[in-house]
Amino acid sequence: MRSGILRGRALWVLVGGLAVAVLISGGAVRRYWVRHRELNRLEDRLAEVRRKVRTLEARRARAENDAEFIETAARRELGLLASDEIEFRFVLKSSSATMTLNDKP
User: Fold this and answer.
1) Contact assessment for residue 100 and residue 91, using Cβ atoms and an 8 Å cutoff
2) N or C, fewer C-beta in 10 Å, the chain?
């Protein structure tokens, strides 16, 4: 029973000592945790940017070696057509502001 009381007192002394240390530190403990969280956030951001760089490097390598990839990218991103192709644009009837060649004003 006596050792249980001593353990309880030792725990309270330890907690009290830690509380005093935090009060004396003048906010250093709080600044540590703020910086620690910021470091974790920046490490996560760095990992995300590295993933994006790997993706872009893979795309660049493919563009350097694959003519079909270049053609597909030009069609999708720039809207380019081959010289023997015709582009069809379909307009929904609910979009009355857009006129097509066959529409009469």
Assistant:
1) yes
2) C
Q: Which residue do the tokens 């490490």 mark?
A: 43
Structure tokens at 37: 């969280």
Helix 28-65 to helix 67-78 angle (10° resolution) is: 110
Structure confidence by residue, pLDDT tens digits, 28-70: 878 888 999 999 999 999 999 999 999 999 999 998 998 888 8
For the question of whether the overall pTM of this predicted structure is more than 0.70, the answer is no
Domain boundaries, the chain: 31-78
Q: What is the DSSP string of 8-34?
A: HHHHHHHHHHHHHHHHHTTTHHHHHHH
